[in-house]
Write a structure and sequence with these properties.
This protein has about 375 residues and is α/β, with parallel strands linked by helices. The chain has 2 domains: about 190 residues, Rossmann fold (3-Layer(aba) Sandwich), CATH 3.40.50; about 170 residues, 3-Layer(aba) Sandwich (Rossmann fold), CATH 3.40.50.720. It contains 14 helices and 15 strands. The chain has an 8-stranded mixed β-sheet with strand order 3-2-1-4-5-6-14-15, sandwiched between helices. The longest helix has 20 residues. The protein is globular.
Amino acid sequence: MIVGLLKEIKPQERRVGLTPDGVRALVRAGHTVLVERQAGVGSGFLDSEYLDAGAQILDREAVCAQAGLLVKVKEPLPEEYPLLRPGQILFTYLHLAPAPELAAALLRQDVIAIAYETIEEAGGNLPLLTPMSQVAGRMSIQVGAQFLEWFYGGAGVLLSGVPGVAPAHVVVIGAGTVGQNAIAMAVGLGARVTALDTSLPRLTALDERYHGRVTTLASTPETVARVLPTADLVIGAVLVPGSRAPRVVTEKMVETMRPGSVIVDVAIDQGGCVETCDHPTTHADPVYIRHQVVHYAVANMPGAVPRTATLALTNVTLPFVLRIASMSPRELARDPVLASGINVFRGNVTHRQVAQSLNLPYRPLAQVV
């Protein structure tokens, strides 16, 4: 198959879908790889490295015109929609639940769109979401600590405290991959940490791991409302695969928070789990203040560390790219893991949760292939 690698054009997005080593593996497997000029420069990978790996370097239009499989990191932007061809396979993060215009474009362009974030293995594991969730979870504490500084509008609180001064109180809502990584960072920095989740097994695992250093609470509207008034930093880490994130923090709850406290809504790429995080921000303009609370709502947090993020992403995506490149559409549909990632198949929404979130007709993949 001809595999195309595009340069990301989302603002402040410098990741790339494949490293030169990933390209080398595809070429070794007998595939042709076309790379858009300067696609990897933001992550520190030069065109010459892709050439050495066996790729051809072309302009964007040529890559899209020839490739049967397009590999990206983020969803296509409107200027990219016309470049998508009928029957072409698009493999990237899509997050369609809060993006009706993108979904309409993918349906209109008659593509096969496979979303990293909905590929699900046995046991509910989301392998392609995990590395970026790890990065985003760890970054959430890093950026939260920064915006607690007075200079950025925060309360002027040091996350760790110092001898004689209490540390900051970090509240993490959701103890999945994002939440677990945020908790680990916060504990490591010496913060006082409270974790909330609806899963008692997850809370039990946290309790056993941290031996009482993390306060665990069953997540209900009442418990969330009780802990927020004492929080210095709140991490929103709630995920429902394929669906819009549930709003677990209401505006009334935000109004009870301390002036200068900080919210980092990691779920913003799925619509946000905090009611007052009602629009995504960018790395160039990452925060806004509402009810005297600093809101950080950057939808592509790992884009700030593109070298690390690209290497981590390719580690998990490359085996799937190799599988997809060797399969026909019918074979893709018969592979249960890859089929779970197919959100759109040639004019049909084939992922139930995505269809429900967008209020669009759902058609099982088996019926449309």
